[in-house]
Amino acid sequence: MQGKSTAKIVVTSRQGEDKTVQELKGEIMVRGSSVYIRYEEPEKGPTGGTTRAMFKITGDEIKIMRHGEVESEQTFQAGRKLPGFYHSPFTKFHLSTDTGKLDVSLDGMSGQIEWEYDLYVYDELSGHFAISMLIEEEV
Questions:
Q1: Can you identify the CATH homologous superfamily of domain 3-137?
Q2: Which of 3, 99, 125, 131 sits CB 3.0–4.6 Å from 76 for a disulfide?
Q3: Which run of H or of E encompasses 7?
């Protein structure tokens, strides 16, 4: 299936006892064997600028690319520790994600993605995160 559609996106992030839920409007696109989800992040960057997020889902891998005031890239694949980076107007660092769980359940342009990972900054464990993303195509 090829195409593009608007979507309601609910992202739930857990780190320890902290839980954040974001309800967003975005787009979902299918190109070849990849699904792309993109939206503008609701929080402004460190100096008030905007950041756009793009998720690329291909098979058993998720890549998150953020562009704008904040630039970053993270890749998730179950059982693998993969490199990434984070750049903002005030700081930049290398990071890596060690993904323990990754479940992608998409039916056309709707579905759910769940993953858990350890985040490392300069090879030091920074935290454990559990993320779920619910995508509902708007018809």
A1: Calycin beta-barrel core domain (2.40.128.20)
A2: 99
A3: strand 3-15
